[in-house]
Amino acid sequence: MDTKLYFKKILISMYQTLKRIYLSKILYYQRQLVAFNSKMNSRKIIKDILRRNNIPKLEPHEVAKAKAFYKSKGYKLKNTYWHRFYKFANGEFHKDYLPLDIFRAIIEPNINRRLYWPALVDKNLTSNIFDKFNQPETVVSNINGFYYMNNTMVKEAIAVDACNNAKAQLIIKPSIESGQGKMVKKFTLNNEISPHNNVDIIDLFKLYKKDFIVQKVVEQSKLLSTLNPTTLNTLRVVSYLDKTGTVNVLCTYLRIGKPGSDTDNISIGGIGCSVYNDGSLHSKGFGHRKDGGKSDITTAPSGVLLEGFKIPNYTAVSKMVKQMHIIIPMFKMVSWDIGIDKNDSPILIEYNTLYQSIDMQMFMGPFLGDFTDEILYLGRINS
């Protein structure tokens, strides 16, 4: 073999090896930085809540139990802030409360493939991914500045006409990360003018710039509308795809919006209420964690009693979630927002795989159930 060619091959091989090593190092430190930031952010959140609401400390034996439990699972529980908060909220101590800093920094990014974030959770793609399931009717999609209707690229003028001619109440929202109901607005065009900032549809599009979706507002179940008619009151269903390939519903709670609001988000004044396996509601509802967690809410904003209220067609909700989760196995834990339409059929609003809320522990307690060991193990070995 030619000597120059031989050394050239060696140099190329060395370069590729070094590239792999340094790239893996860079990715490792990037993950560590993201995890560190996530831990610090979640600790800041909970420390502010504890201080602002003067929440009492745990008993020494409770601290010991919580730390021993997580140590037995291969984790170092550096603080018990979240255990302290959840105990205060629902009056019960559980050693297996899941702290947000452990979930966000370690478990979630290691059981859900981060390579697929945020592409697969773009709301403009949801209708294609779950095309066989009931979803709101999309009028216009904007993907990276380009307008689409029925998977076909169209000019802005055609997108504008479609909205002007929709003859229905519409809702516009960012298609990538609209957490906590940010920039989610309902509107009805009157003479092509939106009451939102009193602008026409073109100016409304400019306000959102790009990556947004316009849909027809879902007409919800008459029964759920009695809880609060101004918002689509949705079920948050958390599902887990276990190691056998079986989808399990970990927990479900109903979100009821604040009167006059466009969304049912708890963070902007809505309430949450646990749903039992038979579809009936718990006797007590809860507000946002920033308010301290404790609650004496027993009725919906409309005055309807929570206890005894039953979600229509709840069995179909669980069935739908299990069928949908199989389509996205790259995400082992998913939080689904499911509405109930005017025909009492479940309808997919959106799904969440990144920065999922686990605040339902305020009113439901630990939610991993029979899969606690499995999920904690997977989070640890993949980190």
Into which percentage range does the β-strand content fall?
A: 15-25%
**What is the CATH level 1 assignment of the largest domain?**
Alpha Beta
Q: Which percent range fits the helix content?
A: 25-40%
CATH topology term of the largest domain: D-amino Acid Aminotransferase, Chain A, domain 1
Q: Which spans of ≥5 residues are poorly predicted at pLDDT below 50? A: none
Shape annotation: globular
Radius of gyration: 24 Å
Succession of helices and strands: HHHHHEEEHEEEEHEHEEEHEEHH
Main structural class: alpha+beta
Number of helices: 11
Ends: how far apart? 45 Å
For the largest beta-sheet, the strand count, sense and barrel status come to: 6 strands, antiparallel
Find the count of extended strands (DSSP E, 2+ residues). Answer: 13
What is the CATH architecture descriptor of the largest domain?
Answer: 2-Layer Sandwich
Structure, explained:
This protein is 36% helix and 17% strand. It has 383 residues and is of the alpha+beta class. The chain folds into 3 domains: 17-111, no CATH class; 138-216; 220-381, 2-Layer Sandwich (D-amino Acid Aminotransferase, Chain A, domain 1). β9 (235-241) and β10 form a beta hairpin. α4 crosses α11 (372-381). It is globular. The chain starts with a helix and ends with a helix.
Brief synopsis:
With 383 residues, the protein is α+β, with helices and mostly antiparallel strands.
